[in-house]
Amino acid sequence: MERSVMRIGVIEGATRPGSNTSVVTRWVLDHAPEGVEVVHLPLTEHVLPLFDWEKHPMAAGRQYPSEAIQAWADAVNDCDGFVFVVPEYNHGVPGGLKNAIDWLGSELWGKASAFVGVGADGGTRAVEQLRLVLANFNQFTIRSQVSLSIFRDIADGKVQASDQKNKDLAGLYQELTATVAQLKG
């Protein structure tokens, strides 16, 4: 049965305890638009082994080799679109996030994603790398993104977003939900 409410998964892309990504993810979740179901998908709750499977996930028929991987794939599959909250580690995508994506196949296919970058310079390099990875899944990635600096936009365990950053996030959600609606057609 088709859901009547759009479901957006907010993928928290860090596995490190106490990460600024958790703070930013809370901000993203708290600013979700009305009329949309937003699901928190923290990688800390989806602990996955390193990808070493002999099968290609796209050819696995959505049947995975462990309960943890199956639960992750099912959670992603149940979403209509995504906001990736992406920390930048050493100018790139964190290994845990890339590994979690490597375990997926059709669950991401043809869906839309938006990005909130987190890092010294707003996570822009990690977001650009992630766009390339998601192109493999025929993803429609939203061009605009929100970039938060760990030095300027986060303090005392909270996002200290300017009015412009809050507007940017609202616009990101608006563009994402409009795109998801178009893709679901």
UniProtKB/TrEMBL annotation:
GO CC annotation, single: cytosol
SUPFAM superfamilies: Flavoproteins
Top-level taxon in the UniProt lineage: Bacteria
Alphabetical list of InterPro entries matching this protein: Flavoprotein-like_sf, FMN_Rdtase-like_dom, NAD(P)H-dep_reductase
GO MF assignments: FMN binding; oxidoreductase activity
Domain NADPH-dependent FMN reductase-like residues, every copy: 6-150
Name of the protein in its database record: NADPH-dependent oxidoreductase
Species of origin: Arachnia propionica
